[in-house]
């Protein structure tokens, strides 16, 4: 009996050690991935449009506002030679963008107020055509329509991933490294990003 107990104890000890090793490796992998996410975040400006509600009419209005804002930002950033210049152009014309969005809302027959801001925004993992961006904090142009209680619309304003179908070429031209592009487009990226979210939540709860 003692021998069996010792065998079980040794088995549990090895299992615990393996689990701890695996968890430590997962945390290290998460830290490396988080570092990559931060580097990517430093090279993009995102667009976040929030509808007044989830009604079909308000969701359609959101898309109309999105189209108008994209049209305006494309014009403002047409001559930008990099992210800093693009952000500066957008920051200098927030009132213009807010007015354009408000005009779109009014033209559709609504009296919703519109708020346009620029700054850090927390995003969940988001999949786009051919690539995905992991959850994290990104610099973003944020457009809130009315109460802002409806579904969101996200994209990347600069580099112009919102309007470009050739993600890899656009990303490379904007200065993203091949490693960063693979990080966003490689096989299984959605699963990797979900695991990152889970591990980060677990790390926070454990106070690690």
Written overview of the protein:
Strand 3 and strand 4 form a beta hairpin. The protein is globular. 56% of the residues lie in helices and 19% in strands. Helix 1 crosses helix 7 and helix 2 packs antiparallel against helix 4. About 5% of the residues have low confidence. The chain is α+β, with helices and mostly antiparallel strands and 208 residues long. The longest helix has 40 residues. The strands form two sheets. It has a four-stranded mixed β-sheet. It is built from seven helices and six strands.
Feature tags:
single chain; alpha+beta; 4-stranded mixed sheet; 7 helices; 19% strand
- For the biggest β-sheet, the strand order reads 2-5-1-6
- Unreliably modeled segments: 22-32
Shape: globular
Largest sheet report: 4 strands, mixed
Mean pLDDT score: 78
Gap between N and C termini, in Å? Answer: 39 Å
Helix coverage percent: 55-70%
């Amino acid at each position: 009996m003692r021998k069996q107990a010792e065998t079980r104890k040794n088995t549990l000890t090895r299992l615990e050690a393996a689990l701890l090793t695996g968890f430590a490796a997962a945390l290290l992998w998460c830290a490396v991935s988080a570092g990559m996410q931060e580097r990517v975040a430093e090279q993009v400006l995102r667009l976040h449009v929030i509808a007044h509600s989830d009604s079909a009419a308000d969701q359609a209005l959101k898309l109309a506002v999105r189209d108008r804002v994209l049209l305006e930002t494309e014009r403002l950033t047409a001559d930008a030679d990099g992210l800093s210049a693009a952000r500066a152009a957008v920051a200098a014309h927030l009132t213009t963008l807010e007015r354009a969005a408000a005009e779109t809302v009014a033209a559709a027959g609504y009296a919703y107020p519109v708020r346009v801001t620029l700054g850090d925004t927390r995003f969940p993992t988001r999949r786009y055509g051919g690539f995905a961006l992991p959850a994290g904090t990104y610099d973003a142009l944020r457009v809130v329509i009315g109460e802002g209680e409806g579904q969101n619309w996200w994209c990347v304003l600069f580099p112009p991933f919102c309007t470009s179908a050739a993600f890899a070429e656009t990303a490379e031209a904007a200065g993203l490294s091949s490693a960063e592009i693979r990080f966003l487009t490689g096989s299984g990226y959605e699963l990797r990003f979900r695991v990152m979210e889970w591990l980060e939540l677990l790390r926070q709860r454990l106070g690690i």
